[in-house]
Amino acid sequence: MKTKDANPEIGKLFGQLYSFNESLKLHHWQDTGEGSYARHMATDQALESVRDLLDRLVETAYSVYGEIEITIPETRAPACLKEAVCNAYKLIEDAKPLLSESFLQSILDEYQEALHQLNYRVTRLQ
To answer: What is the mean pLDDT of residues 40-58?
Structure first.
């Protein structure tokens, strides 16, 4: 178990995921128009999942790597929810080599599953 100087890219990833999660909330609050109730409910469900998953991921990583400096970037509501979800999915996919332990990879997989569920609900269940 490492105790100091965890890879700064891990902290960057966690900050970006936190920012993405909060951008979902901003979208949730601002969404209007046709199909907005379905999107509102879909983002609510996704928020519950991704917040819990990120909490598990960060706490487990702290256990493995020790201190991790996390910086959260400025957060805005996404202009296009589907694009934001696709970008978050790619961010996780690209970052998987940073977290080589299978149990951390499993949490990342669950996060990506939650993103697929959100994409399905937003695209198909209007």
So the answer is: 95
